[in-house]
């Protein structure tokens, strides 16, 4: 029988030198670490709202040394805190590495993606997000792979030491027993090897999980950023449900798969190491078990194909279900009004049954694979022992099995079950990673808004104004601080020359398609939405674009902000200054009224109050339960249409932009509120009187006060000029005035009757057609703060786990 020999003198000396070097490194690493300095670059992500100071603050993990990380002692503080107090979310975050925070993760992953994307664009190849995921890991892969390999090696130190211990025990039945001290050293060695193996395993999963979270966070930020830059045509393809799935399901699958990738290296290494040690014990018969593994390779390929197909179809069904569910929740009021619950439930069940069918197929295939791999080591041991008994052992020895051969071989076969069992996990996770990455890649390669469609130049404030922090809108002598623009202020903030625009890109995207084929670059025949647009909007002027329904008024604003495609190469769109855009359908966030208006800017109480008054919101806030701290529901569900539009106007006014694009905001309010908004906000005497304003409207009663009028028909500017000249010309504008005057007179009379009716009841400034202010009047001038929120904070139980929980668990088990 061949025993695994112990170290000789040269090996012992080498080991001592190696141990001394490692110990010195440990001691050097054990010294306290200084706080890392801030080195976060000013990326686009940071300017979008991330705080570099918070994201760059070192955490308890970053301040820990090597010993603390190996033994996870940096978690002692949070364990003690959890024993004394209730843990909060911030306590957990402080324990995580700084590099997995959003700003760092986004910067790391997006930088690799952009470089790879540009390189593939030049070579006309399809970018590979899988390559980006692997590349963005960088040097962080090194500790993950190292600890995976260290765990594999330490797993087989114990069988080697067991072989030596059994040889030590058998030596006592011979004439030359080995020293007792050797047995003690071998026993201690097995104990130390088990501890080191456990430490390596813990570090492997810790570093792998951290790397997965880091890449997931970066991908989630990239998906969100991409969703904000999608072109109109791409936005129609990517629904909210699909984007949500990319950010939650697909990114999470990538995160879960990352720790399993190093096993692709460590598992074959572990199998090879176990096979070599078995060969030392059993001789050629050890290859019998390896032959069984090789025979199963085609079966593994078939399983991988089945799993990949099932996962694709399962995710497709899930996309359909989430898409439909999003539509249902968005229009839940109509669903309830028309009692469509059963109809939509039937449609949802179709998607859900399809999803469950493939989910069951995935589960059965995975279970079959796990059963096969878990029983494989026993089959390998049985066949190897049979061949050993028949053919003999190594170096021509007989096939008699001793305790040393049996115990060590069984131990090695049991150790071998781990990498073989992990093979099923590697296959499953690799398939999940491949499917998830492909889905995210398709989304990231969608067409974006072409920023070159519009020539932009922002106009900066004078330093004195910036430092003051006051950017008042109304430039009256009573203002404490006036708004001063720099000398570079252009006379024409908006200029369009020979502009022809459409919603479809006239040239196919130069990006490679997701299937690797090169797309066309020839212009497509598409009827333009806007044709031959020539328009100049002067600084500080009030320009009105009008026309019948569907003539291109809203499209004109979309062309100015760059959301339409410019077809004529000779034309251009130039915008000088920052833009505030108020859409025809008000956009409301699920937060308080004040947060909706401030939109991240610091509170200037004087300006804030003047804007509330100009937007006719003061009386509305008085009847809300918590005033401007009242939470607005999802999509402004507890506000009427007019209230939402006025909150949107207040938000835009508070941003103090250079240019205001107003897409018919007055259509959502009645005549008296219309008059208030015009007089106090939009009109020549309003807060925005010194701003450049381009207003879309169907109303005609304010046209005599505007500076410039543009008449659109079939996407073409029919006529433009000031009010008096257009009236005198008796052209298309005159015809519109004559046509709209009858309609507006009837609406104005109806609004007067409504005002009288409202005054007889409770006077509010709601002013919306068919809309009633939602809320209850404050009593005694104050309300409990609990009334401010619609979404209540989730209650969390505190203290120890009660015995009834353990009882319920035992009864269920």
In CATH, the topology of the largest domain is named: ABC transporter transmembrane region fold
Q: Write down the overall geometry.
A: elongated
Q: Rg to the nearest angstrom?
A: 36 Å
Unreliable sequence segments: 1-7, 35-53, 460-489, 510-523, 751-784
Strand order of the largest sheet: 7-8-9-4-10-11
Architecture overview:
The protein has 813 residues and is of the alpha/beta class. The chain has two domains: 9-59 and 96-444, ABC transporter transmembrane region fold (Up-down Bundle); 455-783, Rossmann fold. Helices cover 56% and strands 7% of the residues. The protein is built from 29 helices and eleven strands. The chain has helices at residues 9-29, 44-47, 52-55, 60-63, 66-70, 76-84, 89-93, 102-123, 129-137, 141-171, 180-229, 232-237, 240-257, 263-282, 287-295, 297-330, 332-337, 341-391, 403-444, 463-468, 553-560, 593-598, 605-614, 618-622, 641-655, 671-682, 723-729, 732-760, 803-812, and strands at residues 455-457, 494-502, 530-537, 542-546, 565-566, 572-576, 579-582, 659-663, 692-696, 708-713, 716-721. The strands form two sheets. A six-stranded mixed beta sheet has the order 7-8-9-4-10-11, with helices on both faces. Strands 1, 2, 3, 5 and 6 form a five-stranded mixed beta sheet that branches. Helix 10 (141-171) runs antiparallel to helix 11 (180-229) and helix 14 runs antiparallel to helix 19.
